């Protein structure tokens, strides 16, 4: 945290896109690059994060700013292919593909809550996913991975950073794609990703404050990542709709 050092936040259009101004200073990334984002809507959302800070700047609450910094600085120096393969690798350990056999009540809950989403993904992408109670997880066909690689390739580098961020929060490629495709809400996606934990809480109770804080934090990060993906895909979506009309 650091003390808030600016009064006003505004956006302006530069050569490379939209910039954020803190009073008369242009925002920079951690690597001192000019903070420039590809869409006006994303710039407004980031400016809102900075404007909503009070006496101190709480960087850990500014998920959109963090995602933009990651996209601009690319600290891990990965290219588009590496980002896509990292996202698809989550299929091998996807939360909703791992099932328990005991206790029966939890096994039933997983079946009832997770099976419909696996079924949706299989139909939506025309793939085979399945589930398994083995510690090794399900055997995902190579053709399924290739389909997801091809699908993710349709996103730009910025959106892919957001997709990977959402996948990391939910520990699930399937839940993330359901969320980004607007098939499920943020609340539903988070609940499904924490199904076993929620089951245990229903049974044994929760640690006061801790559970609610974790839940709100996960929702905030997941929502920010999803919004980031949509805002980074916005311009191409608008053109596409105009062409359809």
TrEMBL record:
Protein's GO biological process: mitochondrial proton-transporting ATP synthase complex assembly
Main location (coarse class): mitochondrion
Pfam family, one: ATP12
Subcellular location: Mitochondrion inner membrane
Keywords: Chaperone, Membrane, Mitochondrion, Mitochondrion inner membrane, Transit peptide
GO cellular component entries: mitochondrial inner membrane
Membrane association type: Peripheral membrane protein
Protein family (similarity comment): Belongs to the ATP12 family.
Name this polypeptide is given: ATP synthase mitochondrial F1 complex assembly factor 2
Organism encoding this protein: Calyptomena viridis (Lesser green broadbill)
């Amino acid at each position: 945290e650091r003390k808030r050092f600016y009064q006003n936040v505004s956006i302006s259009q530069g050569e490379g896109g939209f910039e954020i101004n803190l009073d008369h200073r242009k925002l920079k990334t951690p690597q001192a690059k000019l903070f420039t984002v590809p869409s006006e809507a994303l710039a407004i959302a980031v400016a809102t994060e900075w404007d909503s800070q009070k006496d101190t700047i709480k960087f850990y609450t500014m998920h959109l700013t963090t995602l933009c910094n990651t996209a601009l600085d690319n600290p891990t120096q990965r290219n588009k292919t590496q980002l896509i393969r990292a996202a698809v690798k989550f299929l091998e350990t996807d939360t909703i593909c791992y099932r328990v056999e005991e206790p029966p009540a939890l096994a039933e809950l997983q079946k009832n809550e997770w099976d419909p989403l696996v079924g949706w993904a299989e139909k939506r992408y025309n793939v085979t996913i399945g589930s398994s109670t083995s510690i090794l997880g399900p055997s995902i066909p190579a053709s399924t991975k290739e389909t997801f690689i091809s699908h993710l390739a349709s996103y730009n580098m910025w959106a892919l950073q957001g997709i990977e961020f959402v996948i990391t929060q939910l520990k699930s490629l399937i839940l993330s794609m359901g969320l980004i495709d607007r098939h499920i809400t943020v609340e539903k996606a988070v609940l499904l990703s924490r199904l076993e934990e929620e089951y245990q809480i229903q049974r044994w109770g929760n640690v006061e404050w801790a559970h609610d804080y974790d839940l709100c934090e996960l929702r905030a990060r997941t929502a920010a990542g999803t919004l980031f993906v949509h805002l980074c895909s916005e311009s191409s979506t608008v053109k596409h709709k105009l062409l359809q009309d």
